[in-house]
Amino acid sequence: MKFRAEMTEVVCMKQFSNIIEILSKFTKHCTIRICHDNIYFIILDDSCMGEHPFVWCVLEQANFFRRYVMVGLNQEFNEIFLEFEPDMMSKSLNFLKASQSAESMTVKLTNKNSPCLTFEIRLTSPTLARMCVQDIPVIVIPHKEWNSFVQPKLPDFDMVLAALTIEGLNDSLIRMDKNHIKQTFGVKIALPSMKFLRNVIERMKTLDNQVHVTASTNGTLVFKVETIMADMATHFKELSVINDQTGSSQKTVSARVDIKKLLDFLSSDQLNPRMVTCNIAHHKMIELTLNSQDVDLHYVLPSIDR
Question: Could you tell me the keywords of this UniProt record (predicted)?
Fold first, then answer.
């Protein structure tokens, strides 16, 4: 197996560092799937739909790398699966977010007594040029375990709530191809901004570790926590109902999810998303999707029964 890729755009290096930092908040261990056209970051969680991923992040390699060479397991299975610690990688790349001196970054699969992803970052200044090398230990995942990291098949969702930032809703919803998770839904409702929602949920976190999310076709969205001492709810009313294909007069769907995991996702707005959607399968799960120009992040939260 062989992998070597080079970035030369500062914006791409910072965005890559942001992605790894966000993943480090989700888990201690992450899998990177390296393919010819895309790079996937996959996180498994036994509590979320059994063996299926609960985080599925897709990067189109052409948007990040100037040079990209990879040779997989063999001609039939031309992919590479590696497990790594995102926190270690994030700390190694953290300085890229503030640095203006990074000229290029090369990442390659190496063997230094054990498999590693080696980052070679070339730094320049008016008087000095130097190379910073970071080795991130990885575990090569054997082919027999690849089925655990397949693209998840999610149920049909009863409702999707969408938040736009730059592009129109229709253009963003159409932007689904073979690399993206597909599902159907009957209702589309406008969603408040991620930053505003994060402030609301952070206050609720002081009361409980679970939040009940309810949405209805009349344009109402409710976040609620319930405790023995008190209940707290935030109601968003008269949100735009963009499309309703259910044919019913009114429909309400809800799911109760882990509040900390929801906050982890809401902190990923540093990726500058063009669109964020919240797909709700009644009493089953919530799937949160972030779409930016160069990355798609899918985050699945199972519904929790009291």
Answer: Nucleus
* CATH number, domain with residue 232: 3.70.10.10
294 and 205 share one domain: yes
Residue for token digits 């992919």?
79
Local confidence pLDDT in tens for the 306 residues of the chain: 999 999 999 889 999 999 999 999 998 999 999 999 999 999 987 554 444 558 999 999 999 999 999 999 888 899 999 999 999 999 999 878 766 778 899 999 999 899 999 999 998 877 778 888 999 999 999 999 998 888 766 666 666 666 655 344 444 443 433 344 444 444 566 677 888 889 999 999 999 999 999 888 888 889 999 988 889 999 988 777 655 555 556 778 888 999 999 999 998 888 888 888 888 888 888 888 888 888 999 898 888 875
User: Do 129 and 171 fall within a single domain?
Assistant: no
Residues 138 and 111 in one domain: yes
**Are residues 118 and 21 part of one domain?**
yes
